[in-house]
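User: I've been going back and forth on whether these two constructs are worth ordering. Before I decide, could you fold them both?

Assistant: Sure. I'll take them in the order you sent them. The first construct and its structure tokens:
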Amino acid sequence: MEECLSTNPIHKEKRLIAMEKLYKRMRRFLTELDWLKEEIKKQKKWQLLQKQRKITILSKSRKKYKKHEKKNSKKKTKRESLIEEIKKKREEQFRKSKQLQKDINDYIDGVKTPEGLRRIVDSRSTKKLCPSFELTGVCRHKNKCSKNHREIFLSNVILIIGLYFNFSVEKNPMESNTNVALEFKNSGMWHYFCKFYDNIITKLKSFGEIKTLKCYWRNKKHWRANLYVQYDTKRAAAKAWKNLKGRCYNGKPLVFHPLVNGVGFRGFTFKGLEEPESLTKNVGTNIVESWITQPLDHFNHRDNRTWSMRYKENSAFLKKNGPILIMIGGEWEITNGFLQGGLMYELGVKYHGLMYYTEHRFYGQSRPTKDISTENLQYLNADQALADLAYFIDTKKKEKNLEKSIVIVVGGSYAGNMAAWARLKYPHLIQGALASSAPVRAKADFYEYYEIVTDALGKYSKTCVESVKTAFASVEELLAMRAGPQKLKLLFKLCHVPDVRSSSDLGYFMNTLSEIFAGVVQYNKIENSETGIAALCNKMTAKHLGSPLQRLARIFSNQKKCNDVNYNNFLKTYREISWDSPAATSIMRQWYHQTCTEYGYYQTTNSNKSIFGKLFPLNYFINLCTDLYGDYHNKKILDSHVRRTNIMYGGKLPDLRNVIFTNGNSDPWHPLSVLQDLNAFSPAIVINGSSHCRDLYSDVTTDPDNLKAARVKIRKIIGKWISS
């Protein structure tokens, strides 16, 4: 029976089917088991990842919290330090205010000008001066202005901000594009101003004589309602400032601001050398201003009078036996400029030198006499100034224990003469000199000056030269016509009709017009990627501006005030002898005396190539010498003074070694300088297309390659002098 079952094919098949089902079930079970194991593994991995993520999030949160805490802590510290800084600033301001009040009180009482009042404060010393603030004492950008706001503490002009008030000054915000004053008659406005004037003038006059009073009452917001008062002296202005500060007018406190110059108070001015850009941050903190006692007359042993000469010093880079580099001041007031930037500063830093900037007698704050009368101006000349420099060098070398140090002097323009002549006269004290744009040859009739001006204009545009020539010819034609002078008064916005009976009056008018072109060519600055010559010529050739005469008038009278070109008024201003007078502060009385007694340099129209007319010949300038200083002058006397200067200092052929003469051939002064090498040790570098004293500054991107190459050559030569 059993054999039958085992061999039964039906049972055998069923058994195989059952085994096959069991096998499949086992395979499914094993597969499910593998999946379950994998799932468990994934679950564990996911749990681990979740745990790590939680740890990471927690870590980040902790870091973020710590960072936030640190930031808050820094903010708190910063806030506390800021509060402390503000507190210190307020305390310092209060201290300075009290000191300023004390200094002004001392100054009013007749004490020598305190040092605190001599200070000049720059808001951004490395930037260019803000023209609006420099001229008016206010700027629409206020403290946010990107340019330099320069403030002084003594002036004969005070500014009272927002003093004048009438119905046209304050506008309704809804009427920003209207002029409220149009609703009122001029007579009503004038009556209101007269009433205001009567209210204030008595009080203002009680402090001193008032020369000019100006009031802005319909103008831009930052100028509107400002009152400018020009006193005859700085002491009178200081007295007004002291007594009126803290007072009220019309229910408003008076806000004061002293000025360098008031609106419209500038006259016959000289720019001096432009300040170079500062090359080092906060370098001004290294510069010290000081004074040295000098004899009034170095050549009269019986005269024991002395005076204090101002100078500035930068010793931040000095090392033992380092060179002494001196920037010589000319006919201007010295600043920090060349002790914080420019070519000499670069050399001082590189060779670890001691740097000085000396102020010329009778200029800036270096005042040897009680005034600038003709009698006292006899002590203003190159001989005395060079002796001042020699005494200064000798004193400082002993004082600083630098008797073995080499001395290099640097000067530009007239100070360039001083540099070359100092090396000539005192070679035992000075081992080398850089004379930039130095007119070392004195010449009475310097007619070549305007020839160079004409050439420079012509290089840019021949049409420009023709337009200028036509414009000046038109002016002369109108002066010769019966009603012409009156037309010129209206066209050029002159304060007075030119006096055709006075050759001096006509000469002054024409010379003033010509100086517009002379000043632009001499400096030829680049602004807004355009040279000064290009900007001027573009205006003179712009046909849409009218005839050449009208274009000239537009350039000349681009201001709201009338132009005073009256010769007698000019004389009245520059005959004043007080140090507080515009004659002294503008430096023109001092400088013009030097031209009358030493150099000439008179830029006349005696050339046949003149495009500026013929109305200011040499006699105009000779007569000006007589009218200003009261001495008798004529061509023979002037020629004798010029001849003496050239004999004493060698003219264009001085016997010199270790002097570099640099000139730009676009500079109108270059015909009077050394243009060819004197010898192997005294080279002349003529820079094509360059203008006045440009080599004294550091390289900028707008400088042409030949100017940069000239500076490289200068640095190399002076470097050899110092190294040897």
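The second construct, handled the same way:
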Amino acid sequence: MQVTSKLSVHRVLACLTLLMIGTALRWSGDQRMTPELLWELGRLGGAALSGDGNRVAYTVRRYELAENKGASTLFVKDIGSGETRALLEDWPSIANVQFAPSLFGERIFFTGFSASTSEKRSQAWSLNPTDGGLVQVTDFDGSVGNLKVSPTGKHLAFTAGVKLDATVNELYEDLPLADARIIDSLMYRHWNAWHDYKYSHIHAAPIDSTGKAGEAIDLMEGWKVNCPVPPFGGAEQYNWAPDGRQIAFTAKDVERWAESTDSSVYLIDIETPKERLNFTLGQPGYDNDPVFSPDGKSLAYHSMERASFESDRNRIMVLDRRSQKTHDATRGLDQMAHGATWMPDSEGLLFTSEYRGTNQIFHIPAAGGEATQVTRGRFNWSLVDIFPDGEHALVSFKSMIRPSELAVLSLSDGSTSTITDVNGEIFSRLELPRVEERWVEATDGKRIHCWVIYPPDFDAGEKWPLLTYCQGGPQGQIGQWFSYRWNFHLMAANGYVVVAPNRRGLPGFGREWNDQISGDWGGQAMQDLLSATDSMLGEAYTDNERTAAIGASFGGYSVYWLMGNHEKRFKTMIAHCGVFNLESMYGSTEELFFVNWDLGGPYWKGDDVKKDYDRFSPHRFVGEWDTPLLVIHGEKDFRVPVTQGMEAFTAAQVKGVPSRFLYYPNEGHWVQQPQNGVLWHRVFFDWLGRACKSDG
């Protein structure tokens, strides 16, 4: 399948307009980005479009560093007049924002709780967008999430935890103080939490004449599965049919959960929820995110073909509900598809896809055919919703320089109009880095796409320290994202040139490039990182005596591997939540399907698998370690358990290698608390500065 783009003068001007948001006033400010300033930035949250397309509701979250917490504000913007009003302010939690019909006219529905609420239970609320009138819709015993009001406005659905497993104290009632777990299968802990004996179930409730919810019914009663599928599934994993009677949803009902990606798409009627129809029976990979066409005749969902491969090509499958026949609308498309959204006429879909170091929006006919690129430019675009006219879309966009804003996108020519400026005042004061693309020849003759980020005051006539950023995933594109941890803007603002290679294994460059890392962790991907580094070391402006390799997760694995194989290229290294020992990692991680696919199975499977473990495991190369190393790890990281970091730190200490361990007892794979985040950056830059900053 070919991908075409509609490039026009209007689109070019639109891209330039958006680019100005990230680059305007480059020299008008006299400040640089700092770790503290990162936490002053407003963070655009959920957004929704009104039924008539005239209003947008969205949230912005801001943090108080001294208080170590954040609060959200809900805004409504009139697109025609540009008027913006804050309808709710300083709520600890606001999520699942949506416009939906009600007996009293269209309302904004959402989940959350206010600062004045004594019980911090997230509930469903409705809000009058005209006068701000607020109604609490649910009063559920626990918290509710992933709210979806039916298209008719007569029912709402939400997810909530349902306890189905017994604790040891319930099994042995005479031992109320016993503190233990009895574990009979895997997945007893996942991502950053232990199994809490509950399962996330979809519930449905009628909305009465007062606008409040009646008794909620568990649509998955007694079923020990979750919707959404943990750890990252959200509200996209289920949707109402246009008739407001049926729900399509995602669940993973398999015996060996830890070793399988076989999630399925089910259909239920809210009146007879026990009668479940599995649309994807016999499809062994991920099937998820079902969405009905507006005319109700079709159902689209995402699907991965290969069993246990979590990074397989993500397709858009379309089911004809009458004939029960399914086809791949993206057949022949050599890239991923995410967030499939129907056009109002039910004839086509929009989706986002990684594309050459960016995320772009594409259109494809529902029947299949040529995909057309709609957006352009050095941004990560995300689709929020499509306007009723079918000619425009509400989108968000971000870059390495600046976080997300909302815009209206023309689907005919790609022109855009930005409708928010959440952080304009702060950015007007900043000197901004410069971002450039760079293509580097790999050791096998292929070309590696890299992003290079330069300090605001970069002068090619001077010498600059170099950071080689090693991406995680291992299949996760280095796109135009604005990270609050691995923030390239902040690194450049501290005087570093950063090279970020889209090495082998990263999407956006075709399936072959994406798949090549599986079974080859310490192979070509590592050579790609070294090739990108060598290309930068060849520049006159790079100070070869001030160089560092940095990364997290698989990027942390890359750092540990480079520690024993970099041949004196780097003067210091930083690994966050990295894999150090492949054998002990296999025995302590949770999602075994990942390591089974990427490493060929458990290390005892056979001689060939054991050979790969030996040649790719960083711990095998500790004898070559002599480079200073900062290890960062969180206790609640169950994907890459904290013992991986401890093993690496122990090895460095015993070897006499200068090393430091930044340990977080209450963080997981990611660092999420404000003051922990600032601490992370302070330790990060302090460590880099010891080897990479000049005496002056």
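Notes on the second construct follow. The first strand starts at residue 3 and ends at 5. Residues 4-28 have pLDDT under 50 and may be disordered.
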